Amino acid sequence: MATAGCAAALLGATVAAPAHGLTVKVDNQSGRDARSVFLMLSGAASSDGKLPNDVGVPLSAIGGSQFTVGDITSGRLYVSYGAKVTNAEPPTAPIRYDKVEFTTTGSAPTANLTAVDFFGIPFKLRSQNASGAALGTRAEPATATVMNALLKIPGARAATVPASGGGTARIRSPQLSPPRTYPSLDPYVRSMAGQRITIKGAFFGAPFTTFAYSGTFAADGSITLTGTTTPQGGQSAPGQPLAVQGASLSDAIYAGAGPYTVGGARRPPDPNDLYSAVYRDLVAGFAWGYWGGRYGNDTIAWCTNPDPRGYCPLGWNKPSFASARATAPAFTAFHGYASIISDLTDAYGFAYSDTGSVKTVLLPIDPRGTLTVTIVGDGSKAEGGSDAQADAAMLDDLGVRRTVTVGDDDTATVGRVSCPPACGEHAVRITGADGELDDDVVARGRAGADDRRRRPLEVRLTPRAQAYLAEHGELDARMTVTVRRPGAIVDRATTKIALRRG
Q: Span of the secretion signal (predicted)?
């Protein structure tokens, strides 16, 4: 498990690159021209000279759409659309960008996807060793799937950032959004008043040390934890007390960090020691929704495979977030943004996503192997799915009919719009499919976005189509439905329909 500040932000130094290293292949499935897709490597220059450090380069200018990196203690690959970015690009920038994190050094080199700061562009990672054997994959679905789900969270629309070319550049996480954008966790913290908790965990440092700390929440959510620490091969001894004020705790759950004291002394930002691990587990327990939940308030009960030394070696793996509750409380009792990221993706959803979940967010890599980074498209088509499957899914969302009855007013209802799932501006275009009206536009219709009620998606026939129906009684046609969703996402599906007089 990662210590405070380390799990989600891989920032660091470099050492001299060897002649051969990790080959990073970029598979552009974004639907955008490679000339308008930019890559930027942060942490070091590529060892083959194709990518300078912190300088954006068009994907079209990178030979073979691949590059090689040497020994990078930690680094990031940024992908942006339409313009270059730097590693200091603000999350409010109108340029649409996102990143992949990786490190090629140490005993366990890894890569990971992250939505800790925001969600803007989805990726898929595929890792292979030097012999080409598969080491695993991590993936995010199409932009539409994730953004539409995040926008269901109350207040999440205030976390969106407009893109310069229209649409949405990204949806910011709670830690980078304006205060109180997302639902407050204050009621959750206060609900723990009078409850005693026990944190049993481990610090994976030098030396490896386990700890067992307990405390009881005050009425305002404040808590002082006391307990023992046991270094590997050593004896248990009392540790210093760790205290957290309730007023800071709810914001810290979202941010993954906040003020606390150890032995009465205020802690510096992002320390990496045993006490940061205790604080991490306190905060992460709230984010996962475990505290006050169905498994009790002892962290060892949150995993199915506890180590005899008193910690969960693979993290907390019992069902979390909403599933950690026997009944739903009247307040928000978990990190809702992280819950959606966890449900839909293999990415970090908050700073301590590696403390739990049934998923493993870190992907092993071979420093002499290959990491394929696929830039996933914006539409609703599932990874590996056919266009027909994507069309069917969208048309099913809209309740599109295959036989449409035209009324006396020359209008017809071809489906039903609601938000969610079919959020966005809807346009319908119907053309003749055979005979004298083949390829002619015979009907059009529109529907606005953000309608929370299910309402008709209507079209009006052209005068020529009206005359044709009056003579023939039925018109075979092709209908194309276009949905422009948040995030500059455009979904389009076509189906055959029959227009008939009522």
A: 1-21
Which residues are within 8 A (CB) of 3 and not within 5 positions of it... i.e. 6 or more apart?
203, 204, 205, 272, 273, 276, 277, 280
371 CB burial (10 A radius; 0-12, 13-18, 19+):
buried
Rounded to 5 degrees, what angle do the CA atoms 427, 429, 432 make? 170
Q: What is the pLDDT of residue 485?
A: 63
Q: What is the pLDDT of residue 446?
A: 87
How many CB atoms are located within 10 Å of the residue 395 CB?
A: 20
Report helix, strand or coil for 34. Answer: helix
Task: Report the pLDDT value the prediction gives residue 252, as an integer from 0 to 100.
Answer: 95
- Which segments in the chain show pLDDT lower than 50? 1-19, 380-390
Whether residue 37 contacts residue 81, with contact meaning beta carbons closer than 8 Å, is answered with yes
User: Which of 372, 373, 374, 366 is closest to 21 using CA atoms?
Assistant: 366
Give the pLDDT of residue 488. Answer: 54
CB within 8 Å of 287: residues ≥ 6 apart: 253, 254, 256, 334, 335, 338, 350, 352
Domain boundaries, the chain: 22-183+344-375, 186-317, 387-501
Does CATH number 3.40.190.10 belong to domain 387-501?
A: no
Tell me the C-alpha distance between 466 and 432, whole Å: 12
Contact criterion met (CB below 8 Å) for 237 and 229: yes
CATH 2.60.110.10 fits 22-183+344-375, yes or no: yes
Q: What is the pLDDT of residue 236?
A: 97
pLDDT score for 392: 57
CB-based burial of residue 408 (10 Å sphere; 0-12 exposed, 13-18 middle, 19+ buried)? exposed
In the block, residue with structure tokens 């475990």: 290
State residue 101's pLDDT score.
97
Distance (Å, whole) CA 76 – CA 87: 9
Cα separation, 337 vs 343, in Å, equals: 10
* Contact between residue 77 and residue 89 where contact means Cβ atoms under 8 Å apart: no
The predicted structure's pLDDT at residue 19: 44
User: For residue 86, what are the CA distances in angstroms to 39, 68, 76, 351, 394?
Assistant: 10, 20, 11, 22, 36
- Taking the C-alpha atoms of residue 72 and residue 279, their distance in angstroms, rounded to an integer, is 29
pLDDT for 453: 61
Distance of CA 242 to the CA centre of its chain: 32
Task: Give start and end residues of each alpha helix (H) in 229-271.
Answer: 246-255
